[in-house]
TrEMBL record:
The gene is CjapalphaGlu. The lineage of its organism: Eukaryota, Metazoa, Ecdysozoa, Arthropoda, Hexapoda. It comes from Camponotus japonicus. Residues 33-416 form the Glycosyl hydrolase family 13 catalytic domain. Residues 1-19 form the signal peptide. Its EC number is 3.2.1.20. One of its GO terms (biological process) is carbohydrate metabolic process. Keywords: Glycoprotein, Glycosidase, Hydrolase, Signal. This is alpha-glucosidase. SMART domains: Aamy.
Length: 562
């Protein structure tokens, strides 16, 4: 085994995940997000469904995925593509039946895949029976939602309680004549916020978790958790200086985000999970690092790490990527939780569109080879690109609220189009030429079937690098990160074996010296095999370098050595 020199000034050596006895399945899984409307349509109606998912489990297995998470599949008017739920305990008929769901759980487990559901606790649909009864003040539902009589101005007019703004833009309050009150919605008007000050709501939502755990799901991805509770004094939030009161950025979210009560509710959900065996809870949280990490302490198995989404882009320097990695890993030393890396999801522009091809590949390698959990949004494994969607075809409420002039900037539809399986009709996603969102025209060449045939494709990179996750060094090795000049990020994973990665983010060739990281160093006996190099996606498996003091890394290239 090669010994490692730790040069404290330039290296950060983490021992996270090192040889943990009794490691749990969620600690080092490759997790795949399925957006059910767009994954695979089994009945030709143009929208994906559960039987479609079941028919494609082999793709997950071949891609070394260990668990998959389904975005919402519950009954919904689909104002927010299923994130507006009208029955927390059912299956929307577009996706199939409860029997289809049970068959999917069984098929997943038979294939040793874990299945994770989206738990959406912040709000329901306004069509949910609870809201309809709350509107009419029918007990016990009267206070299931956040109602407010409004502010009475000196001239007697009743107006909105305060200046809170919805995430999708415009006021977070909507008036209902029936109830003579405003209700709060941190998202669309059709998504009224549940009231966690009400113990009946707290209990009812715990029962939702139990319902699906009894159906043998393996865990939950918890939606929009930072918005769960609000400060009940309902005070105005401070202004940020943004002059548009309809913009989410108009106020500083000190009363509508990251409230202590939210963390306490999460603790309660963890107790529910612990009534069962081996269940996992992961949080979708967009907050600063401190408020994000705090979820580890309050019972989440992990909050998603969105550093690669929020803090890096096509202009970031190698040091920016290193900062994102090191800051998360330093926190792992404190909370002893599994790290995780998320680079894309259904709310963000596709990786290739956001970063450009070469950088997207580098980021894919980072997510797959850094310690802990790797998260992949369906389609990123083949490098799908954002699809231009016309105003007429726009479905996303965030796009619709922005209007014809602003929708292109706001809409999340471009990252949600159907999965490109092959070059047949509707990219093999559906037999129907009319799909719920249009298929990207590039499917003729950019599709899974074509990429399987080609050694230098995005999918070949994804699959080959995913295979490395079985190595002890990647599964449970330590992590070292270092900057080799302004443009090159180096990291290594060490266990009994070693994996080394150099990423040249710059636009000219760099020569790097890896000798400080590898011992014993002797020019004649060091053999570093290039496992993969992404030179415009060229695949160089098998090349051997001897002089590790002067390795050449071409511009915009990631090289993995073993
Ligand atoms: C989460 C989902 C997003 C949805 C929002 C409201 O952020 O990822 O798609 O619109 O919650 O439920």
């Amino acid at each position: 085994m090669r010994r490692i020199i730790t040069l404290c000034t330039i290296l950060l050596l983490f021992s996270i995940g090192h040889s943990k006895p009794n490691a749990k399945w969620w600690q080092s899984m490759s997790l795949y997000q399925i957006y059910p409307k767009s994954f695979k349509d089994s009945n030709g109606d143009g929208t994906g469904d559960l039987n479609g998912v079941k028919s494609q489990l082999n793709h997950l297995i071949r891609s070394h995925i260990k668990a998959f998470w389904l975005s919402p599949i519950y009954p919904s008017p689909m104002v927010d593509s299923g994130y507006d739920i009208s029955d927390f305990l059912g299956i929307d008929e577009t996706f199939g039946t409860m029997e289809d769901f049970e068959a999917l759980v069984k098929a997943a487990h038979d294939a040793s895949l874990k299945i994770i559901l989206d738990f959406v606790p912040n709000h329901s649909s306004d069509q949910h029976e609870w809201f309809q009864k709350s509107l009419k003040s029918i007990e016990p539902y009267t206070d299931y939602y956040v109602w407010h009589k409004g502010k009475v101005l000196p001239n007697g007019t009743v107006t909105k309680p305060n200046n809170w703004v919805s995430v999708f833009g415009k006021s977070a309050w909507t008036w209902r004549e029936e109830r003579q009150a405003y209700y709060l919605h941190q998202f669309a008007e059709a998504q009224p916020d549940l009231n966690y000050e009400n113990e009946n709501v707290v209990r009812a939502m715990k029962d939702v978790l139990r319902f699906w755990l009894d159906k043998k799901v393996d865990g939950f991805r918890v939606d929009a958790i930072q918005h769960l509770c609000e400060d009940v004094r309902f005070l105005d939030e401070p202004l940020t200086g943004n002059s548009n009161p309809d913009d989410y950025g108009y106020t500083d979210k000190i009363y509508t985000k990251d409230q202590l009560h939210t963390y306490e509710i999460v603790q309660g959900w963890r107790q529910v999970l612990d009534e069962y065996q081996d269940k996992a809870m992961m949080m979708e949280v967009y907050a600063n690092l401190t408020m994000t990490i705090k979820y580890y302490v309050y019972g989440a198995h992990f909050p998603f790490n969105f550093g690669l989404i929020s803090d890096t882009n096509r202009d970031s320097k190698a040091a920016d990527f290193k900062r994102v990695i090191d800051s998360w890993m330093l926190n792992m030393l404190v909370v002893d939780g599994p790290a995780n890396w998320v680079a894309g999801n259904h709310d963000r522009s596709r990786l290739v569109t956001r970063y450009g091809l070469e950088r997207a590949q580098a980021v894919t390698v980072l997510t797959l080879l850094l310690p802990g959990v790797a998260v992949t949004y369906n389609g990123e494994e083949i490098g799908m690109e954002d699809t231009w969607i016309s105003w007429e075809d726009t479905k996303d409420p965030q796009g619709c609220i922005a209007g014809k002039e602003g929708y292109e900037k706001a809409s999340r539809d471009p990252a949600r189009t159907p999965f490109q399986w092959d070059n047949t009709i509707s990219a093999g996603f559906s037999t129907n030429p009319n799909t719920w969102l249009p298929v990207n025209k590039n499917y003729v060449t950019l599709n899974l079937a074509a990429q399987k045939e080609v050694r230098n494709s995005y999918y070949s990179l994804y699959k080959a690098v995913s295979a490395l996750r079985a190595l002890p060094a990647v599964r449970e090795g330590t992590l070292t990160t270092s900057l080799l000049g302004d443009d090159v990020l180096f990291f290594a994973r060490f266990h009994e074996d070693s994996v080394y990665v150099t990423i040249n983010f710059g636009n000219k060739e760099e020569t790097v010296d890896l000798s400080p990281f590898i011992q014993p160093y002797n020019q004649s006996d060091i053999r570093l095999t290039v496992y993969y190099a992404t030179i415009n996606a060229h695949h160089l498996i098998g090349t051997v370098f001897k002089d590790i003091r002067a390795l050449k890394i071409p511009a915009s290239t990631t090289v993995i050595y073993i």
